[in-house]
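User: quick one, sequence for these tokens?
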């Protein structure tokens, strides 16, 4: 058992508590939360005190690529399609053990940043292996690619084999999902097949969608650099006359299972309403969107429409780190609103709000302690300090 006392405790579902405490039981669950004088002091509970700390729920990073952690600063291009091409070439010449090391470092970097749950997307399975080995929490979406409709069966065979292999790492804290990458790398038959597979196996699904202007041009008009690249490979491209969001709706992707839509920058009011009606959630990655000059996603519109939204850092290749507070700053959030988005709203976006995301009795004890001033320093010029102490399900993983 652990008993944590802090200068301030921020439950998220209740007002902040000055000189508060949290008791964690032997099952790794929150047993009590409140003012220090009101929280029990069992003799078998290890007391830890952070008088200059803010104790908050562990942060939820709704979009990472942890297997790419070793590639920070190695891909340089102002053109998004070229940036993707360079990253793909870099991955193709990287041995499997490097992905495993990168993913393990990525998990530890997340913990150091106060992140206790990730929604990770990758093609190698390294992130799930690392989270399993280190005792982390998250959903890992296995990527699948295949823009050529004639290769649909081959892509699905690879996906089902990968999901079967990775399923051995699944646990109460780790889930396996699937991720048909993006409209310019996934054919219509493959989208439909993955959606049906996810529905049949009850797997969560994640998609990169409505991220760039080039993607919108590709889907709507069948033009642009993505279309040119596919035609150069002998793959036919037809204009759909739809937005990327509407395109996936027509293919039944949102109805397949719990669906996480990553980015959603190039959207209009109809797209926002479609996402709400479909019950999809969004991983909002403002720093990544800015780094690639994609534009600004309408976060306020998503929230006012009732769409579930969490924040994600994307890969360190895009943003350089897994500091979620930086994305809160980039999203224009501050104080308790920022904390709520980084914790409970992120958990809701992943369907995990009954387990994590707030300091409530009975929830998993995923906690982080930051310097006391963390919620006062969310300004564009500020540098958010790393976490002082972090637990996942009551187990100390940092600090």
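Assistant:
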């Amino acid at each position: 058992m652990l008993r944590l006392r802090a200068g301030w405790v921020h439950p998220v579902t209740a007002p902040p508590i000055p000189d508060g405490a949290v008791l964690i039981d032997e099952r790794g669950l929150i047993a009590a939360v409140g003012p220090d004088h009101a929280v029990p002091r069992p003799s078998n509970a290890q007391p830890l005190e952070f008088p200059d700390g803010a104790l908050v729920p562990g942060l939820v990073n709704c979009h990472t690529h942890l297997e790419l952690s070793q590639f920070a600063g190695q891909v340089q291009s102002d053109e998004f399609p070229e940036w993707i091409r360079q990253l793909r070439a870099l991955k193709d010449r990287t041995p499997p053990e490097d992905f495993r090391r990168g993913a393990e470092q990525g998990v530890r970097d997340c913990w150091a940043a106060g992140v206790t749950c990730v929604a990770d997307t990758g093609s190698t399975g390294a992130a799930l292996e690392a989270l399993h080995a280190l005792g982390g929490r998250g959903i890992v979406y296995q990527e699948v690619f295949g823009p050529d409709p004639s290769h649909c069966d081959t892509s699905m065979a690879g996906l089902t084999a990968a999901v079967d292999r990775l399923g051995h790492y699944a646990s109460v804290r780790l889930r396996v999902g699937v991720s048909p990458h993006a409209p310019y790398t996934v054919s219509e038959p493959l989208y439909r097949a993955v959606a049906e597979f996810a529905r049949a196996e009850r797997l969560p699904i994640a998609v990169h969608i409505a991220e760039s202007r080039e993607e919108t041009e590709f889907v709507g008009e069948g033009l642009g650099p993505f279309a040119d690249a596919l035609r150069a490979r002998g793959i036919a491209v037809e204009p759909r006359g739809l937005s990327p969001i509407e395109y996936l709706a027509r293919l039944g992707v949102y109805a397949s299972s719990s669906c996480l839509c990553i980015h959603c920058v190039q959207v209009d009011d109809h797209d926002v309403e479609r996402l709400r009606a479909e019950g999809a959630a969004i991983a909002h990655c403002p720093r990544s969107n800015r780094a690639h000059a994609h534009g600004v996603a309408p976060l306020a519109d998503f929230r006012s429409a009732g769409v579930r939204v969490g924040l994600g850092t994307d890969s360190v290749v895009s943003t350089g780190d897994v500091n979620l507070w930086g994305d809160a700053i980039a999203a224009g959030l501050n104080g308790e609103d920022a904390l709520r988005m980084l914790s409970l709203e992120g958990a809701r976006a992943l369907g995990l709000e009954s387990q994590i995301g707030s300091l409530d009795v009975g929830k998993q004890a995923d906690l982080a302690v930051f310097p006391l001033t963390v919620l006062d320093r969310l300004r564009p010029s500020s540098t958010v300090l790393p976490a002082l102490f972090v637990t996942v399900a009551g187990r100390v993983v940092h600090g």
